[in-house]
Amino acid sequence: MRKISYGRKSQLSQPAYSLFSLCSGINYFQHKKEKTMNLVDAFVKKVISGPYEEYGKWWIDVEYISWGVPGKTRLMFDSKEQALEVKEGYKFLT
């Protein structure tokens, strides 16, 4: 009986790789890029409250504008001095 040839070898004739062989010796996910968030600049339009301490950090409530869109948020700082530096025009990332 003659063997029938279908041209190229099928995928099944190739050696199968186990999860162990993929992960041993190399980091399989090393080639993947880390996902990063896109951040945009925001500028303080008005300081709503003075600095106050909560959860061991210093917070300040502000109104801001980013790309023409107004909003309200709370900014967090490690020290009271850093929070006191926030004035109109202060730039932060959102």
Structural summary, described in words:
By secondary structure, the chain is mostly beta strands. The protein has a domain at 37-94: OB fold (Dihydrolipoamide Acetyltransferase, E2P). 11% of the residues lie in helices and 34% in strands. Strands 1, 2, 3, 4 and 5 form a five-stranded antiparallel sheet that branches. A hairpin with a 2-residue loop joins strand 3 and strand 4. The chain is elongated. It starts with 18 loop residues before the first helix and ends with a strand. The mean pLDDT is 81.
Q: In terms of topology, how is this protein built?
A:
Blueprint: H1 19-23, E1 41-47, E2 52-54, E3 57-66, E4 69-77, H2 80-84, E5 91-93
Antiparallel strand pairs: 1-3, 1-5, 2-3, 3-4
CATH domain class of the domain at 37-94: Mainly Beta
Q: What's the mean pLDDT score?
A: 81
Radius of gyration equals 28 Å
Task: Let me know the largest β-sheet.
Answer: 5 strands, antiparallel
Q: Quick one: how many beta strands? A: 5
- From the 3D coordinates, which CATH architecture of the domain at 37-94 would you assign? Beta Barrel
CATH level-3 fold name of the domain at 37-94: OB fold (Dihydrolipoamide Acetyltransferase, E2P)
Query: Considering DSSP H and I runs of 4 or more, what fraction of the residues is helical?
Result: 10-25%
Structural class assignment: mainly beta
Sequence of secondary-structure elements: HEEEEHE
**Per DSSP, what share of the residues sits in E-state strands of 2 or more residues?**
25-35%
Helix count, DSSP H or I runs of 4 or more residues = 2
| CA-CA gap between termini | 73 Å
Shape: elongated
- Low-confidence spans: pLDDT under 50, at least 5 residues? none
